[in-house]
Write a structure and sequence with these properties.
Eukaryotic RPB6 RNA polymerase subunit, rod-shaped
Length: about 130
């Protein structure tokens, strides 16, 4: 096959810097054992990846996605799982809060009953004394 030039690939990926990144990602994929989409012809993996991009035999969007995922330092979790976990925690907190409110009301009720009995008892004593 004839030599691959950057001009052959620029038609597929207009940004030269992005072309370098995508080519490097595809070369890493090939080195890791990815299936070739063009004949190797005794070329290095970088040249093979450039030829694949020039011939549009690889999906450049898939390469972009793989490149971005490879450069990310944190892993994003799916939001629905977090939402479900957060809802479960919120429900537990609400139940615990309700239990605390009920126990506090029960304590207040028992305190007022005790205060009433304490208040009534001295009056009865004074009436008995009289």
């Amino acid at each position: 096959m004839a030599r691959v030039t950057v001009e052959d690939c620029i038609l597929r990926v207009p940004n030269r810097f992005e072309l370098v990144l995508l080519t490097a990602q595809r070369a890493r994929d090939i080195s890791a054992g990815a299936q070739l989409t063009v004949d190797r012809d005794n070329d290095k993996t970088t040249v093979v990846s450039l030829r694949e991009i020039a011939d549009s035999t690889v999906d450049t969007e898939a390469l972009r996605t793989a490149l971005i995922q490879g450069l990310q330092k944190t892993v994003d979790f799916d939001e629905p799982e977090e939402d479900a976990e957060m809802q479960a925690i919120e429900i537990e907190l609400a139940e615990a809060s309700m239990n605390l409110d009920l126990s506090q009301e029960m304590r207040e009720d028992s305190l007022t009953e005790q205060d009433e009995t304490d208040f009534i008892a001295p009056e009865e004593e004074t009436e008995e004394d009289a």
